[in-house]
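Look over this one:
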Amino acid sequence: MTECSISLDSLAGVVILAGGASRRMGIPKATLILPTGEHLLDYHVRHSLNLNVPIMIADNERGFDVDADLILNKSQSPVSYISDYGATNSDEQINTGGALVAIEAALQALVKLHDSGASENKQSSWLLVISCDSLIPATELWQKLQSSITQAADKQVICLTDNRNLYPLLGIYRVSIEPDLRAYIDSGQRRVMSFITPIGQSVAFAKHWQDLTNFNTPTDFARACASLNDL
């Protein structure tokens, strides 16, 4: 896929969710090594760089490194680490983190960029959310989801679905929902589905993505890597 085939007019930024406990995997998913020798976090950063928007890594202060050569001279796609919304120290982040507080932190960062004039994107644009249990490239994920923005004009979240599951952590979130998400979290809520169900729209998986996502064990990851090699 070439960059010119992707419409970026409404994309404000990317957040890579890399802070999960990964207990069944045995090691943090961000540090998993692909057959090519590339770490999973680097894989997602590399593909996200093609979108030419700010890239945020939400890793619960784990300090996962990104290959310096990837981001050298990439000023149009700055890579930064963000702390979960509401967390005050590393221990608290590990205990009380989660997907929504990471997404809220990313949305706040994009709002600040807009308010400071550092970004030309309006708050009606979108944040692309990518979880580290997937090998779907950021460019392909954005292209798939953004094609539904016009048809889902009244929706605030657009995410993938298959025949059985919804994937809210492989989706796009309208930046303008930041105050609503903040209020939801401040009320003590953390459930992703409860928040997105009234405002969300699902988009069917590309068939060849079925085995590329939702890997939670070494066996799952091996299957995903095999599927990636088959593309």
Notes: Helices lie at 40-49, 68-71, 90-96, 99-116, 138-146, 178-186, 192-196, 218-230.
